[in-house]
Design a protein that fits this description.
The structure is a single chain. This protein is of the alpha+beta class. It has 4 helices and 8 strands, in the order βαβαββαβαβββ. A 4-stranded antiparallel β-sheet has the order 2-1-7-8. Strands 5-4-3-6 form a 4-stranded antiparallel β-sheet, with helices on both faces. A hairpin with a 3-residue loop joins strand 7 (152-159) and strand 8 (163-171). The chain starts with 5 loop residues before the first strand and ends in a 7-residue tail after the last strand.
Length: 178
């Protein structure tokens, strides 16, 4: 019997109190998917894999984490991918190159894949909504700002009915000099 694929993703979770604030904001502009998507910055987008693939994916992610030092992140302001994609996001102002390097390490081996768009770390706050809601999100969170340190990332599994849930956490190395 062939098992159905599992849909996974790999991401850095946004810490509290900002995670809840941004998720509630996303819900407030009418993005009903927000309740099923933890606030995050994607490293690997939703990817269907055979269930037994997790046996090779998890050690790969552990290796990627061990080879990466933690890093500082500064989120500030908003951006959009419109007209290419109906997305408004909170922008990464500091930590972009660290996210790019980590995503590059993670998207090798069993998670190697071609992306539909160039990698651009961000926190989605509105997706596939009417233009007025996207405009509102872009304007209302234009002054959003927070700072935090990234010390881990998560493997998420999509579960029908409950959405994305972290299944495993991978700790990064302690940053040197901290």
């Amino acid at each position: 019997m062939v098992s159905s694929p599992v849909t996974i993703g790999v991401a850095v979770a946004i810490p509290e109190p900002w995670a809840t604030r941004l998720q509630e904001y996303r819900r407030s502009v009418g993005d009903h998917t927000a309740a099923m998507i933890p606030t995050h910055i994607t490293l690997v987008p939703p990817t269907p894999v055979p269930p037994d693939a997790l046996e090779t994916i998890e050690p790969h992610l552990e290796s990627a984490a061990q080879g990466t030092a933690g890093f500082a992140v500064h989120l500030r302001g908003t951006g959009t991918f419109r007209p290419v994609s109906e997305v408004v996001f909170v922008a990464v102002a500091e930590g972009i190159s660290s996210f790019e390097q980590l995503a590059g390490r993670v998207r090798r081996g069993p998670l190697a894949q071609e992306l539909n768009f160039p990698y651009h770390p961000h926190v989605t706050i509105a997706h596939d909504l009417p233009s007025s809601a996207l405009d509102r999100a872009f304007e209302e969170l234009a002054d959003f700002e927070c700072r935090f340190d990234v010390g881990e990332f998560h493997l998420y599994v999509h579960e029908d009915g409950s959405g994305w849930r972290p299944s495993r956490t991978f700790a990064l190395q302690a940053p040197s000099g901290r």
